[in-house]
Write a structure and sequence with these properties.
This protein is an alpha+beta fold. Helix content is about 25%, strand content about 30%. The strands form seven sheets. It has a four-stranded antiparallel β-sheet with strand order 1-28-27-26, with no helix packed on it. Helix 1 packs antiparallel against helix 6, helix 4 (about 415-420) crosses helix 6 (about 455-529) and helix 5 (about 425-450) runs antiparallel to helix 6. It starts with a strand and ends with a helix.
């Protein structure tokens, strides 16, 4: 695993750069600035950048369409422009709001555009002829940011009224309002699984919620000034932030702590974005510069193992029949999409990380707030984990982001490795428990099936919902066990390498010692002669 490194930087704006977005194929990067210009930077060598002029005031938001054929920009001039990212810079414009446009985003199918504004509204537009669809109006101050979930069924927004609101796009209702912030909420984003949201605020904190239970699960206080922008890595394991304290920070969401602190900008860092594959990320700031970084830390170390795991999960899923209910609670819909489990990995907490273009450090562990079963409502969903005791006793449970109740302080890597080896039998016990639970579920299904004719429909529906919930939890448990098995294998291999290195080192020492003794013996004999 390597440190992030500065790959290239672009300079062409004449004022602070406020927004960034990569093209889907990572061949271009769009940036907007207070200088009213949109720049499209080309990664192909010796290809010039495109400067687009059209807005009459500073650009505050930019977004590539998933097709890569359009770029949308939002401005203080109250308009949204749609650009074709080519040499000609052709664009169409429409007046979207009655005040500055703070954010723009395309839906995943490129059919809709979501905008937010200082006029306190969020608006949805059809891309076809830029036709207005509807407006969401419950914020009481400027709406800084609005984002789609991956399937575009949900919308999340953040505002200077210090709230974050979660919306159902179809019903246009506000599902939940998060009030935990004490400052303006500058940026908000959906986790790639669409079951979590993260936000950054002027109170210098980053917070993450599970939207299935509406509970705060992680809280970071590493920045010293306002946070302006956040971005999830596509794998969901890392969160990138930009702050007025001039730093970029990478948070490891599995370990629940800061991973890297990057220094590069002179003045406030205003925008960050990961590429669609996660191999690059970009940052921009008040120093008028755009920097492109090679991620490095997400590479290859566990890729083979994760590929094997994903193949196994896909094979298992074809052999399972999971009945989906018509439950209208959005948190239950999000909970049902548990295929996007975040992969666990091992970090060397004692490693000192630095490079010529970046300095990195590990801060203290953040305040991590676990789920509490007693605080859950009747319709809330939690991760049922009957093997919690076994995992914790192994002192090496994967810090699974979907099971925040298992979050433990990090330990020395060597101790974790030894504990994993010493408790290697935990995996077989887990498999036995899963098998027993699976048999119980099968018996329960059979009993329900035999007696369904003699029971009322309402009772059968309750049984069906209960069974479905158990099956979903078993699926999560199976995937967690798979991660633990792979982690055990990887750690054993790593430990074997260390042992081999130690044995080679001791052998070399013995050889050196023997040579020294022989040399001293020959010298002594010569002196006697």
């Amino acid at each position: 695993m390597e440190d992030p490194s500065l790959d290239r930087h672009f300079k062409g704006h004449k004022d602070a750069v406020t927004c960034l977005d990569f093209s889907p194929n990572t061949k271009q990067l769009a940036s907007g600035s207070i200088d009213s210009c949109l720049m499209v930077w080309n990664f192909k060598p010796q290809t010039r950048a495109y400067r687009y002029v059209g807005h009459k005031d500073g650009i505050l938001a930019v977004s590539f369409a998933p097709s890569g054929q359009l770029v949308a920009s939002g401005s203080r001039d109250k308009t949204v422009r749609l650009w074709i990212p080519g040499a000609k810079g052709e664009s169409t414009v429409f007046t979207a709001h009655s005040a500055s446009v703070r954010s723009v985003e395309f839906s995943s199918d490129s059919q809709y555009i979501l905008t937010s504004s200082d006029d306190k509204t969020i608006k949805l537009w059809s891309l076809n002829r830029q036709k207005f669809q509807f407006s969401l109006n419950q914020h009481s101050n400027w709406v800084r940011c609005a984002k789609f979930s991956d399937d575009a069924r949900l919308i999340v927004s953040s505002s200077d009224d210090k709230t974050i609101k979660l919306w159902d796009r179809n019903s246009r209702d506000c599902i939940h309002t998060f009030n935990e912030y004490t400052g303006f909420v500058n940026s908000v984003a959906f986790h790639p699984s669409s079951t979590f949201i993260a936000a950054g605020s002027t109170d210098s904190t980053v917070k993450i919620w599970d939207i299935r239970t509406n509970k705060l699960i992680q809280h970071y206080t590493s920045h010293t000034q306002a946070i302006n922008s956040i971005s999830f890595h596509p794998c969901g394991n890392y969160l990138l932030t930009a702050s007025n304290d001039s730093t970029l920070k990478v948070f490891d969401l599995l370990e629940g702590k800061i991973f890297y602190t990057l220094h590069g900008h002179q003045g406030s860092a205003l925008a960050v974005a990961f590429s669609k594959e996660g191999d690059y990320f970009a940052s921009a700031g008040a120093d008028e510069q755009v920097m492109v970084w090679k991620t490095n830390f997400d590479q290859i170390l566990y890729q083979d193992s994760l590929d094997i795991r994903s193949q196994r999960i896909s094979t298992q899923s074809t052999n399972k029949i999971i009945t989906t209910s018509n439950n209208k609670h959005p948190e239950n819909k999000a909970f049902s999409s548990t295929n996007n489990v975040i992969h666990a990995h091992t970090n060397n907490a004692s490693a000192s990380r630095s490079s010529s273009s970046s300095s990195s450090q590990r801060d203290q562990s953040p305040l991590t707030i676990p789920l509490n079963e007693s605080n859950l409502n009747e319709n809330d969903s939690i991760d049922f984990n009957p093997t919690k005791a076994a995992l914790v006793s192994a002192a090496a449970a994967p810090k699974h982001f979907l099971t925040p109740n298992l979050h433990k302080p990090s330990k020395n890597l060597a101790n974790i490795n030894l504990n994993l080896i010493a408790n290697g039998g935990a995996t077989s016990n887990l498999n036995e428990k899963i098998s027993n639970i699976g048999n119980s579920v099968s018996m329960l299904k059979k009993t329900t099936s035999d007696s369904e004719a003699s029971k009322p429909n309402i009772q059968f529906k309750d049984w069906s919902n209960t069974l479905e919930h158990i099956v979903q939890q078993l699926d999560i448990l199976t995937q967690t066990v798979g991660i633990l098995e792979e982690r055990l294998n990887l750690t054993e291999n790593k430990l074997q390498v260390i042992v081999d290195n130690n044995s080679i080192s001791s052998t070399n020492k013995n050889i050196s010692s023997n040579k020294f003794i022989k040399c001293n013996g020959s010298i002594a004999s010569e002196l006697r002669n």
